[in-house]
Amino acid sequence: MGPDDPIAGLHWWAHRVRLADKARRLCASPFLSVRLEDLATQGEQSHWAAALADHVGVPVEEMEAAMATFSPDVVKSGGWRESIRARRQARIDATYRDLWIELRDEGVEGLPAAPDQAG
Fold first, then answer.
1. Which residue among 32, 35, 39, 55 sits deepest, i.e. has the most Cβ atoms within 10 Å of its Cβ?
2. Nearest Cα to 39, choosing from 77, 78, 82?
3. Could you tell me which of 74, 73, 96, 70 has the C-alpha nearest to residue 9?
4. Nearest to 50 by CA among 40, 31, 63
């Protein structure tokens, strides 16, 4: 898995996003971008199970079974903020914003929420 430090983790994440974007550009077929949080949202699970199953060519029931492990309790967005000081949060947010802008300016597609919409 990735680093334990949030700042190092963001740089690790940006590197992996760049690699995924390069791989996507090599593929002849269209790609499907999904936020992990969307897979855990109760009202969205059936929609994404059908979309993903269709995209990869598996039965919907198989995809639903695979997604059964996703839940809002397991996939938390922003829960890390509760355990660190505001100044550290601001540094992490600034790093995310800077990396997100770099990725966007490089033409990377399928990015997560813009920095002003994250967190």
1. 39
2. 77
3. 96
4. 63
Tokens of residue 50, six digits: 């059908």
The reported pLDDT for the residue numbered 117 is 63
Predicted pLDDT of residue 78: 72
pTM of the model: 0.70
Q: Specify the amino acid at residue 97.
A: R
SS (H, E, C) the chain: CCCCCHHHHHHHHHHHHHHHHHHHHHCCCCCCCCCHHHHHCHHHHHHHHHHHHHHHCCCHHHHHHHHCCCCCCCCCCCHHHHHCCHHHHHHHHHHHHHHHHHHHHCCCCCCCCCHHHCC
